[in-house]
Amino acid sequence: MAPATAETAAVAVAAAGRVKTALGVAACERDAEKLELIEELTKGFDAVQEKMLAAILARNNGAEYLRRHGMEGRTDRDAFKARVPVVTYEDLRPEIERIANGDRSNIISSHPITEFLTSSGTSAGERKLMPTVEDELDRRQMLYSLLIPVINLYVPGLDKGKGLYFLFIKSETKTPGGLPARPVLTSYYKSDQFKHRPYEPYLVYTSPTAAILCTDSFQSMYSQMLCGLLARTEVLRVGAVFASGLLRAIRFLQLHWKELARDIEMGTLSAKIVEPSIRDAVAEVLKPDPELAAFVAAECAKDDWEGIITRMWPNTKYLDVIVTGAMAQYIPTLKFYSGGLPMACTMYASSECYFGLNLRPMCDPSEVTYTIMPNMGYFELMPHDPEAPPLSRDDPPPRLVDLADAEVGKEYELVITTYAGLCRYRVGDILHVAGFHNAAPEFRFVRRKNVLLSIDSDKTDEAELQAAVERAARLLEPYGATIVEYTSEADATTIPGHYVVYWELMLKDRRDGLWPEAAVFEKCCLEMEEALNSVYRQGRNGDAIGPLEIRVVRGGTFEEVMDYAISRGASINQYKAPRCVSFGPIIELLNSRVLSKHFSPACPKYGPYKK
Fold this sequence. Notes:
By secondary structure, the chain is an alpha+beta fold.
């Protein structure tokens, strides 16, 4: 299915007398107001940014952190840039720990820190605590309110159906000082803004709120899937936060379709669902439907699951999932299960701050860009040269530039200042400037700034590893095999050490597919090495790095890894399979599921001019 454009959608709605805006034909007057706000903010981008910084500094004027850096009574940008240092989480750790331990003085913010938002478990290997203040939710809600008006430009009629979204929370913890510490989406779903949201025809979910708010992942997923099946003809979009979350839902359907079909046939909910609020919510929609039950059973009993999303939910217009960055590797699998539906990446956000929107959400995933909204925080850019050696802690940081001065084609690391008290904080995201919308830069998300693998002087990051896996995966295509999931480790138990890459595979056609021979996997090892950087290849041609190894694991292994991470406190919403593992129990789990091991048969080509 070809992605929609604003022009084709406009043809569908123009006859109805919709409102024209600079971004396209709005679905209604309210949408037009939101779209005009986007235009107003992006046209006056730098002026809005300067006002945002002044407002943040004025509000936090009494904070200890700003006083320490000579900003008491100052709100001007020049003084801020000259006096306030650029920092990482490690630099702020003492202040964060004081707040977490119960110090209620104005340490980084003049307004009380109301909770901590925990970063993804795979961000730099630790769960960071990001401070937030009560009214930050209002700013984030404002950005959410812009999503549907933009989507409506490309996909008309979403108010005529429902969205099947697999959304989850996790049990929150408390810091020693008593503040909640939880993922950003858990915070949002448990807020009054979400729980008591007014009726909005464009945001009707099949999942009951009680199911979303259940901390038991099985009960939550089961009831959300059941309600989605009951409303199969009403569903117009299917989604999850990350692509991996949607694939987890498909896997759940593969494992539990018999019980789901039985519930639909009998009109009774499984005894495994014990949460009273869920049982009450599901009872409102669950009635005996033998015809639907037979359909679900017939479709799921087939060996072929290609296009299962559109078979189960035939009116689905697009998938709403994040498929940028590390999630890009799931695109082929999502295409397989969805029959090639468009994938909409709508928003760029993190635990630290919400940043912006994709103003062309139905574009190809490889073309996704995010337009930063200048009223979400104050943003700066640190120039990033992927070829330059990393700076030491003693080196002065490069001069930061304002977003309005970003140069198209260059890469930068994002630096933020927020109402919650983060000042010139390095988020760690590397962004590529693709262009501008009015005066607002449009960014492609490149990667997290972190090194995954290193044996000697080599340093392999997430983007390099993913590119190498994708290159090797092409050798599997003649066999109908695809890589469902992967991770890696730097194995230092051998001399010399070497890279180990774990692959879980899926055969597209289980009946005719042929499992690749050992020689094919050996070629995949060498193909990956050929794709890695010159420092790695130089090390391989010497005695610094051993041959790359691929370990093929049995189906379902990465589901077990995810279950283990969730059992240790990871958020099901924010979980991303780690691209590198070093935690002993995870490595033991992976190694216990290995079906075969394969090594690179030769050294990759290396020359001083091969980069």
